[in-house]
Amino acid sequence: MAVNWNSAAKTSRMLAGLAQIDADATNPATLEIGAAGMTAVLLVFTLQKPSFSESAGVLSCLGVPLSGVATLTGNAGAARIKDGAGVVVIDGLTVGTTNSDVILNDVSLTTNQGATLQGLTITHA
Fold first, then answer.
1. Beta partners for 46?
2. Percentage of the chain with pLDDT > 90?
3. pLDDT the model gives residue 3
4. Domain ranges of the chain
5. Up-side HSE of residue 123: CA atoms within 13 Å toward CB?
6. Fewer CB atoms < 10 Å away: N or C end of the chain?
7. Cβ count near 50 (within 10 Å)
């Protein structure tokens, strides 16, 4: 059976996660876009600081759209967020052009091809 949290608890948990993402005082967090299973990192977006806003248990990425350039060729199939020190804070994000945590303009990436992060939302379960 699923555990249900009230709104205040969801907000508190999401803000704690956001604090970890933005913890590094100097370096911004990054969003790594990888092949399925994160077997290779294809593209990295630098997030702004603060990186997200929170409302009703949902983190929404600030500053989108963001532009980046693919460093490898492949199909984007997974993503993770690292804090400014390079520590993975969130893993297992879905990637697609619609109906995913991470929304890109195209999931078929080619080395040196530009890509656009159109949206990134993380919803409390």
1. 30
2. 95
3. 87
4. 7-123
5. 7
6. N
7. 15
State the Cα torsion 24-28-33-39 to the nearest 10°.
Answer: -40
The answer to whether 79 and 17 have CB atoms below 8 angstroms apart is no
Give the E-state strand segments of 8-101 in sequence order. Answer: 30-34, 41-46, 52-55, 58-61, 66-69, 74-75, 78-82, 88-93, 95-96
Which residues make Cβ contacts (< 8 Å) with residue 59, sequence separation at least 6?
14, 17, 18, 52, 53, 121, 122, 123
pTM exceeds 0.70, yes or no: yes
Token reading at 67: 């532009």
